[in-house]
# Entry
Amino acid sequence: MSEPTRDPIEALTNFGTGGVPVNPLDPAAVRRLGDQRRRRQNTMYGVIAAVVVAAAVIPTALIATKDDGKAAPPTGEVTPTPTPSPTPSTTIVAFPNGGVAIKAPEDTAKLVGTSDDFKTFIKGVWQKDFDSGCKTAEIDVMKYSSAGLGWGGVGGCGGYQAIWALKDGTWREALYTQDEWVCADLERYDVPDGFAGDCYTPAPAPAVVTFPGNGQGVHKESDAALLQGTTDDFKEFIIAEVARLHADAEKTAATDPGACADANNAAVYVSKFAQAGYAVGSVFLCPTGYAAIWKKVDGTWKEVVTTQEQFTCADLDRYDIPHSFIEGDCFDASKQFGPTWAFAFKIGQTTEQVRGVGGTITGDPEGDCATVTKPNVVGSDNDPLKEVAMTRGKVIAIFANDGFYTPEGIGIGSTEDDVKAAYPNGHRDGVDGYWHVPISTGSEYEIGIGQDKKVSELLIQTTGSQRCYG
# Structure
């Protein structure tokens, strides 16, 4: 008795179940199976056709056989197709209830199902945080993938969530945030959907990002995650700058402990960042600091301008940075004093030259000491110049008023440290107590520093012999 005819789709549905029906396939699956049936039928037709062709070829093969009955050698060799190795499956280990808390090196033994090198890496992350001064350091491991990924939190002394990745045989902290993950970041490290929670696609970053107060401080590598709205390469640059500052501070602390009690206080504060490729902020060394402008030059971020006073407008112009980008006014070139010229006057000018630029000479210009006036330039406390002096027919001294500065930013009120930093090639005269800075042959800056360690007088003076001023 023949078996009853069964629907092929029903047979496939029940295959391997001992005849017990399983869930029916959806219509799309049925269509796919129908397509497979048609493909198999077409294949069978192809096989039948191949057999017919083979039958037609057999006589030709027999004719090619030698008299001894042996077949002629084959004209080519058949290379066997290797069986592909199965792709190893990825194992994901999830640790519930907030993850495995690593509060001591031995706690890494609790990371059951993870690799030994991952456990060693997590132990190192904990140890680094602990050694940096966080005695309550804690690493919470929430998920692990044998594909070379881990997700968890770094805490104990402030915290953030992190994704760890195995790259080129080495585990490292690939991503960190105190916010929700950015989807593009996860995609960059091939983090599967849902592995580390939800992610979002942020709106395009604003052209300029401003950080309030004194700016966003970056004291250690993980703080760079707080520079929201800046670029990854800028964050990496700031991280490298902080590492350099710490190294310099440690050297200072080693030679002069009183000057730098805690090298970890060295930090960078970012006040404003522009997507166009420049930023402004401040750098705290140990124990001093300065304001800085950073710019991306030829694809690399660099510290291009530093000052302990106002930024000069000329510096901003040189690096194509809008004046409005800097908080407060930049130091206008019209307020520049020296090094060679000062508001049309110059050391060594003759009587004719002084009058030619609008100066009026009071006293005997050929005598020991005469003075020069010029409307809105010299002669009033509100003018750029306090005084222009002449001896024997030549200008020998030009004094600056308050509010005017050398190109290096030195003016009335600058500190002694500022002066020495701006002019390390200068020297203090033991006779007059001024800081003397060579400008060119025959002239120099003379910077008077009061008992309060601040500049009280600034002038350009001849270095030759004259009897008006010392």
Notes: Residues 1-67 form one domain. Residues 1-71 have pLDDT under 50 and may be disordered. DSSP finds eight helices and 24 strands in the chain.
